[in-house]
Specification:
Radius of gyration: 17 Å
Helix content: 40-55%
Order of helices and strands: HHHHHEEEE
Distance between the termini: 54 Å
Number of strands: 4
Largest sheet: 4 strands, antiparallel
CATH class: Alpha Beta
Number of helices: 5
Strand content: 25-35%
Strand order of the largest sheet: 1-2-3-4
Shape: globular
Length: about 120
């Protein structure tokens, strides 16, 4: 009985932990962008990528609510990912037809977004 309770507790705690793989980190990053939560998005980024996000956030703050809505990442879904050592890319589709990609690097066991681009 005690072993079953312990195992359930371990599983519960493991499921509440931070995202660990590149795909999970990219998904959390994209979720933050979809809700325009720039501070949360920055938490998933490497330092070198944060400057671009800060510029976007400053521009966003000067826009009307209608213009701000255009910054929101709409209807996105991850379509695939590739990992080679400490570098990974996560592909995503947004607004049904547009394609994007998030590049991540692993820093001492933690995946961080370094770039996002759309095609």
């Amino acid at each position: 009985m005690k072993l079953g309770v312990f195992a359930a507790l371990v599983l519960l705690l493991a499921s509440c932990g931070p995202p660990v793989g590149p795909r999970e980190v990219a998904e959390k990053y994209l979720e933050a962008l979809a809700t325009l939560d720039f501070a949360r998005a920055a938490g998933y980024m490497a330092n070198e990528g944060k400057t671009n996000l800060e510029v976007i956030q400053q521009i966003h703050a000067t826009l009307t609510p209608e213009e701000q809505e255009k910054f929101r990442l709409h209807d996105w879904q991850v379509t695939g990912h590739q990992q080679l050592g400490t570098r990974a890319t996560v592909d995503f589709l947004f607004e049904k037809t547009k394609v994007g990609q998030v590049t991540l690097l692993n820093y001492a066991g933690t995946w961080k977004v370094v770039a996002r681009k759309t095609f």
